[in-house]
Each structure stands twice: as C-alpha cells, then as structure tokens.
Automatic annotation (TrEMBL):
<dbReference type="Pfam" id="PF10075">
    <property type="entry name" value="CSN8_PSD8_EIF3K"/>
</dbReference>
<dbReference type="GO" id="GO:0016282">
    <property type="term" value="C:eukaryotic 43S preinitiation complex"/>
</dbReference>
<feature type="domain" description="PCI">
    <location>
        <begin position="47"/>
        <end position="205"/>
    </location>
</feature>
<dbReference type="InterPro" id="IPR036390">
    <property type="entry name" value="WH_DNA-bd_sf"/>
</dbReference>
<dbReference type="GO" id="GO:0003743">
    <property type="term" value="F:translation initiation factor activity"/>
</dbReference>
<dbReference type="InterPro" id="IPR000717">
    <property type="entry name" value="PCI_dom"/>
</dbReference>
<dbReference type="GO" id="GO:0005852">
    <property type="term" value="C:eukaryotic translation initiation factor 3 complex"/>
</dbReference>
<dbReference type="GO" id="GO:0033290">
    <property type="term" value="C:eukaryotic 48S preinitiation complex"/>
</dbReference>
<keyword id="KW-0963">Cytoplasm</keyword>
<dbReference type="GO" id="GO:0001732">
    <property type="term" value="P:formation of cytoplasmic translation initiation complex"/>
</dbReference>
<dbReference type="InterPro" id="IPR036388">
    <property type="entry name" value="WH-like_DNA-bd_sf"/>
</dbReference>
<dbReference type="InterPro" id="IPR016024">
    <property type="entry name" value="ARM-type_fold"/>
</dbReference>
<keyword id="KW-0396">Initiation factor</keyword>
<comment type="subunit">
    <text>Component of the eukaryotic translation initiation factor 3 (eIF-3) complex.</text>
</comment>
<dbReference type="InterPro" id="IPR033464">
    <property type="entry name" value="CSN8_PSD8_EIF3K"/>
</dbReference>
<keyword id="KW-0648">Protein biosynthesis</keyword>
<dbReference type="GO" id="GO:0003723">
    <property type="term" value="F:RNA binding"/>
</dbReference>
Length: 231
C-alpha cells in the first residue's frame, strides 16, 4: 500500500507532463516543468524519451536557459535505454559546443563502447567517471541487462569469464546473479573445458534456424490475394 502511495505523485507528474506536451510542446514556459520531470525520472527510476526530446528542442530555442546537469542526466538515461537508439536521438539535439565539454565527451565515449560491445573498456571508463553515472540510480543494472542482451544475441554458450567481464561482476556476486538467471531466465550452467559455461536459451539470433522457421515464406493464400491487387 505504501509503495502505491509513493508512486502516485510520480504518476500525476507524468500525466501533467503528457498534457503539456499534447497542448503546446514548443512553449518555453513548460521548460521548468520538463526539467523537474527529468529529475523525477532519475529519482523514481522511470523514463520518458518524448519529454526529454521536447526539453532538448526547447533548449535549442532558449540556449541561455540550458542546464548542462539536466542534459547530462538525459544522456545517461538514454544510455540506460540501449539497445534503443535514444542516445543518438538526444545527442542530435545538443549543440556541438556543449558536446565538447568533458562530461559529454565521456558519455559519447561510453556510448561508443556499448555500441561496439567493448564492455571491459566501458566499465573502466565508467569507473573513472563515477560522479557522472552514479548520479542516476539503476545505471549499472540497466547496462548489465544490455550486456546480457548482446551476449544472448551472440552466444549459445558463454564462458563465465566472458560474462563476468561484460557485466562487471565476479565471485560470489556473480554466483548470485547466475542463480537468479537460472531461476528466472532459463539459463543452464554446465562445466566446460576451462571452467563454467552458461547455456543461453535459444533465440533467432544465436540459433539462426529458428528465424528461418518463423519467417520461411509468405503463405500462398496471401500471394493469391496480393497479385490481383497489383494487377
């Protein structure tokens, strides 16, 4: 019951912002509301790409009102949304002179490492810039989920050491993480030649033959319906 009561103000704010965006998204008067909403997204671990893009567009028209702290938070939240392309969408609306500031250069580097699957470099860089990423709760968990997503597209069986590097967890913490995945995500642990292997459930990317079965061909009755229309 208590949690529901806590959520209510956040839901009210989300509804109010949604209304503002619907009525007049280009009105600079809504700028403070959208900034407050970014902070609310951070504290409540929620996310609204539409509201954040709207704020970045307003900053383009009112550059003197831009808060670099708010922009940095928007970009961190966008990183957390990967594999969605939100980071690029947001970056496109940020002036180049702002992108040249150190904290934004760092976020762009972090984005590049994630996009190219260089997770060890990502975690090393993030560790050097804790003040940027730790300001947003849930960051580490969101990136770990993204890393698992990437591994699941690549591997049928992933060595424990590769997983440990990708999600930046070792030892007992990794054991606990694996227990959770076995219980909730269908992972299977087995012994490999040089240690533990994690068997990832099949999907159309790590088992391409599944994709073939799901999208083999267009059913014949669809073709017979289409051709008369084209004719």
């Amino acid at each position: 019951m208590g949690r529901e009561l806590q959520k209510q103000p956040q839901q009210e704010m989300a509804s109010a912002v949604e209304q503002l965006l619907a009525v007049n998204p280009y009105n600079p008067d809504i700028l403070p509301d959208l900034e407050n909403y970014v902070n609310e997204q951070v504290s409540s671990e929620t996310y609204s790409l539409d509201a954040n893009l709207c704020l970045l567009r307003l900053y383009q028209f009112e550059p003197e009102r831009m808060s670099t702290q708010i922009v940095a938070r928007i970009l961190v939240k966008a990183l957390m949304a990967m594999p969605a392309p939100d980071f690029s969408l947001c970056l496109f609306l940020i002036p180049e002179r702002v992108q040249m500031e150190d904290q934004f250069k760092t976020l762009i580097i972090l984005s590049h490492y994630l996009e190219t699957g260089k997770f060890r470099q990502f975690w090393d860089e993030a560790a050097k810039n804790r003040h940027i990423v730790e300001a947003v709760p849930g960051f580490e968990q969101a990136i770990q989920a993204y890393a698992v997503h990437v591994l699941s597209l690549t591997y049928q069986k992933v060595p424990r050491s590769v997983l440990a590097e990708a999600i930046n967890i070792e030892g007992l913490s990794l054991d606990k993480f694996l227990e959770h995945q076995v219980a909730n995500s269908g992972w299977i642990l087995e012994k490999g030649g040089k240690g533990q292997l994690i068997v990832i459930p099949p999907n159309e990317f790590n088992h391409p033959e599944l994709k073939k079965k799901s999208s083999d061909s267009i059913p014949l009755d669809h073709i017979t319906r289409i051709f008369p229309i084209l004719g």
